[in-house]
Specification:
Number of strands: 0
Structural class: mainly alpha
Number of helices: 4
Shape: rod-shaped
Strand content: under 5%
Radius of gyration: 52 Å
Low-confidence stretches: none
Largest sheet: none
């Protein structure tokens, strides 16, 4: 471009334009070419570096994908483990509850057997001429009737409590409905 500018100035006028003769266009062009070649070399070097970095990044990208896959798998396994743990805990508690219930039943039966042995020996010592089996049948009949009466009372009380709770919860929902502006 500088050459074009100089060519556009007629030779007769070059003497009148200051600095035209002192301008070394060839040296400037050589310097510009040198800078341009250095820039091209730098660009080429950066492109090679970029290609090398891309090659280095590819295994990292693969590792990142594998890591994400492993994270998802770990999350699924943790979830499954928690579910299995909850199921096993429930099973163990149910088994323990059954075992405790059986232990209680065995203990009650042992206590009843001990009670009967004590009653028979006490009866024989206190009333040697009377019949223990007759008394035992009468006692069992009375005990069964009493137990049925008590269990009936307990069932009635539980039903009353459930009815009371359901009426409390329905009145609470009615109050909430009224507070929200809903009609009855």
């Amino acid at each position: 471009m500088a050459r074009t500018m100089l060519r556009s100035i007629p030779t007769e006028e070059k003497d009148h334009v200051p600095g035209v003769g002192t301008l070394n266009l060839e040296a400037i062009l050589a310097e510009v070419k040198k800078d341009l070649e250095a820039a091209r070399a730098k660009i080429q070097e950066l492109e090679h570096s970029l290609a090398a970095l891309r090659e280095e990044m590819e295994p990292l990208r693969q590792a990142e994908k594998e890591e994400e896959s492993l994270r998802r798998r770990l999350t699924k396994l943790k979830s499954r483990l928690q579910t299995q743990e909850a199921d096993l805990t429930a099973q163990i508690q149910a088994q323990l509850s059954e075992a405790e219930q059986k232990d209680k039943e065995v203990l009650v039966q042992d206590m009843n057997d001990d009670y009967m042995a004590i009653m028979k020996s006490s009866w024989a010592a206190l009333l040697p001429n009377s019949n223990f089996e007759k008394w035992d049948k009468q006692f069992a009949t009375c005990s069964d009737a009493y137990n049925a009466e008590i269990l009936g009372q307990i069932d009635d009380e539980e039903a009353a409590e459930e009815e009371e709770e359901s009426s409390d919860s329905s009145s609470e929902s009615e109050q909430e409905g009224e507070a929200a502006g809903e009609p009855r």
